[in-house]
Amino acid sequence: xxxxxxxxxxxxxxxxxxxxxxxxxxxxxxxxxxxxxxxxxxxxxxxxxxxxxxxxxxxxxxxxxxxxxxxxxxxxxxxxxxxxxxxxxxxxxxxxxxxxxxxxxxxxxxxxxxxxxxxxxxxxxxxxxxxxxxxxxxxxxxxxxxxxxxxxxxxxxxxxxxxxxxx
Length: 167
Fold this sequence. Notes:
Radius of gyration: 28 Å
Protein name: DNA-binding phage zinc finger domain-containing protein
Distance between the termini: 62 Å
Organism: Prauserella endophytica
Strand content: under 5%
Number of helices: 7
Helix content: 55-70%
Region (Disordered): 134-167
InterPro entries: Phage_Znf_bind_put
Domain DNA-binding phage zinc finger: 113-163
């Protein structure tokens, strides 16, 4: 909250509770610091909830605790955009192009590397059973491969699948 928002909140509290702190210089500075991470709308809702339950004068901790509880019990069903693999691919391509530009690599090499990685990950790995879209892993440890982009069996499967698409 800003200093002005804290002043508005204290004015609202004073209309309900005559014992509420007056928005003097020190009070505003302290309350603003304590409520800096609380949105104004949430602070107003906390004020209303507080005075609906008690006659005690509200304190910054009452507002902060109300805000923490609200966030802690936020609904798990947050809206997520629908999964769009093409959007992810475009994002990967942009990142690869930015890295290529930064490192002075040829853009074509970076694009072909991202395209090759997509092609390899377009099929399940017959060797380690890595699912589509996921990198190959060492079968015994589950660690990602470090010396190759994929197992040879996955490379063969991806090339075969690509050949079938273009035939």
